[in-house]
Design goal:
Number of helices: 5
Largest sheet: 6 strands, antiparallel, barrel
Strand content: 25-35%
């Protein structure tokens, strides 16, 4: 390159040729990056290129989530520090790490109600500094009639390089994720013991930590490997 530059400078007519060569080289590099596929032949998002997940700052995509009629949230959807999850909760539910959600659920139906938060339901952070959350299995919430219940919901992180939830974090219900790599993981885990049992404390040791790493491989990496799927197959069944 230095020799080419010297020749061009000694022959001014060649300066234009040098510029053209440099421009072509930059275009080749640029095109090689931008041409990387972000979806498969069927239009499904590929790992590392899913809207709202990993490095993406776009909105989460999927089916709209409709809250049960007669059930409301008092005070919005709040984050909880992953380092300080103690509190006066009537139920501690879900599974996951880094994105903890607190909701005061009010049952106005006049009858006992079973609210099911579906697998794939996402929680969209109101700040791009904080991680979005995801439920990897259905989570039932039992609500007695005409009462309120403050729940602590554990969810999985969808953005490895953002901040974990804190007491200042605020969330909205996101869609039920329809990205093929996430749906595949949900299906693989459907019959496995994932959600916290009553009284069980969350721990990153074991399945919960493994699931978070698998999710990050989908959201921030290149997806599940054959070895990952083999490890999922031997997890404890429900």
């Amino acid at each position: 390159m230095f020799l080419l530059f010297s020749i061009a400078m000694s022959h001014p007519r060649n300066v234009l040729l040098l510029c053209i060569c440099l421009t072509c080289a930059l275009l080749v590099v640029s095109c090689s990056k931008s041409d990387a596929p972000v979806s498969d032949k069927d239009g499904n998002d590929l790992p590392g290129h899913i809207s709202g997940m990993g490095p993406s700052t776009e909105a989460l995509q999927g089916q709209l989530f409709h809250f049960s009629a007669g059930v409301a949230i008092d005070g919005g959807i709040k984050g909880v520090s992953a380092l300080e999850s103690q509190g006066d909760y009537c139920q501690v539910i879900g599974s996951g790490s880094f994105v903890l959600i607190s909701m005061e659920l009010v049952n106005n139906t006049g009858k006992d109600t079973l609210l099911v938060l579906p697998a794939g339901l996402s929680f969209a952070s109101q700040s791009l500094e904080d991680q979005n959350g995801l439920l990897i299995q259905d989570v039932p919430v039992y609500l007695a009639k005409n009462t309120s219940c403050k729940v602590l919901l554990y969810t999985y992180c969808l953005n490895e390089h953002r901040h974990a939830s804190s007491d200042e974090s605020r969330y909205d219900f996101g869609p039920v994720c329809n990205a093929a790599p996430i749906k595949e993981l949900i299906q693989l885990l459907a019959d496995k013991k994932v959600n916290l049992a009553p009284g069980e404390k969350a721990s990153l040791d074991g399945a919960m930590g493994d699931i978070q790493l698998w999710i990050w491989q989908i959201t921030d990496g290149e997806g599940l490997t054959a070895s990952d799927k083999q490890r999922i197959s031997v997890l404890e069944n429900k």
